[in-house]
Every structure is written in structure tokens, then in C-alpha cells.
Amino acid sequence: MNEREWDKRLHIRTVGREDEDNPHYSPYEPTPYTVLRRLADSGHIRRRDHLLDYGCGKGRVAFFMASVIGCRVTGIDHSRKLIDMAVENRRASGLGDRVMLKCCLAEQYAVQDENAFFFFNPFSVKVFEGVVRKLAAKSIGKLILYYPSEDYVNCLNQIPEIEHVETIDCGDLFNGKNDRERIEIYRLNARPD
Length: 193
Known about the structure:
By secondary structure, the chain is an alpha/beta fold. The chain has a single domain (3-188), classed as Rossmann fold (3-Layer(aba) Sandwich). The protein is built from 6 helices and 7 strands; from the N terminus they run H-H-E-H-E-H-E-E-H-E-H-E-E. A 7-stranded mixed sheet has the order 3-2-1-4-5-7-6. Helix 5 links the parallel strand 4 (116-119) and strand 5 (141-146). Helix 5 (125-138) packs parallel to helix 6 (150-157). The longest helix is centred in the middle third of the chain and has 14 residues, at 80-93.
């Protein structure tokens, strides 16, 4: 299925890019459905998990994972416009309380019971470092990075409470060879209090 066919199947509208004027936050660009399918098939996210999608935009990751895996997903984004679009998608999707959406800055979000954290380069490495250091200090779970920047990977390698688990190659899903077409899985090992 192509991107529009997946959107139609899930009763949502997530195709298209939305530019951003905040230097610390990236434009909205949805994660390709083929990548989400590969992640879903990997077994790293299960029905009992609660996934937090940082920079959720219109909610594609949230609606796909809640529908295909059946897990709960919280999507956060700093853009009121994008969250409003995601809320409309939530109404149309019929997924009810399996998808929660919140407009807030990533660095201000207080993690609840989420145990898996998804990033598709949603913000600057400065914001990313603050978010993952906060997660490393308080959470046990997984970090999932699609198309990770070198700066993000270097940042994670500097935090002892975070360990690399697996690389899932996604290069075969696209024309040409791009080493960033991958999903990186990391484990959070919270420090004892």
C-alpha cells in the first residue's frame, strides 16, 4: 500500500510536509508507512506498551501503532495547528482512548507510564539531549529513532544509562543507498535512586 492508501485505511490524513519557523523544532514530515510496518514487525513495541511519539505532528505514528499493534500511544507536538489536525484524525480513526494527544514542548512534558519513546529528528540536538537525559534519569524502557542524525547518535553514546540494542535496516525500502534509512533501538536503564 502507498502512503495515501494507508491513510485511507486508517481513516486519517497525514500526507504532506508542514514547515516550521522555530529553529529548535523540525518541519513536520511523516514517517513512511513502510518504516512503521518494519518497526511493528520487529517486536520492539507490543500491545502492552505505551508509546510516546515526540513531535507527533498529524499523528501518523500514533494511529498506525495503535491500530496495527493495539498499544496505547501518546503524541505530543509543540504546534497547535498540527495537534488540531491530529485531534481531527483521532475523531475519524475510531481508536478512542488508545491515542492521546497533547500540545506542549517536549522538554516540558512529564512522562507518565510511557515505556517506549519514538523520535524522527523532531527537534534540535540541544532539545533532544535535555529530553533523553530526563528520560534516562527517570524511566526504564526503549528509545526508538528513525533516520537518526549523527548528532542524536553521538548524544546517546555519551549517556551511560542508555545502551544500544539493535539497528533495523530500512535501506531496502527506498531507491538508492542511504545509511540513515534505519531504525535504532536503545534501552533506558534508569539510575537507582
